[in-house]
Amino acid sequence: MKLEQNEESSLFSTTEIPDIFFSEYLSQSSGDFVKVYLYILFLSKYNKDIKVNDLSKKLALPFQTIQDALKYWEDIGVITKKGTGFIINNLQEIELHKLYNPKVSLSIEDIDRNEKSKYRASSIETINRTFFQGLMSPSWYADISMWYDKYGFDEQVMVALFNYCLKRSALHRNYVQVVADAWSKNNVKTFMDLETYFQKQTVLQKIEKAIQKKLGLTRPLTEYEKAYIEKWTVDYSYSLDILELAMKRTTSKANFSFDYLDKIISDWHDRGLKNTDEIQNFLVQYKTQLQNKKEFEKNAKLKDFEQRTYDNFDMLYANKQN
Question: CATH no. for residue 55?
Answer without folding.
Answer: 1.10.10.10
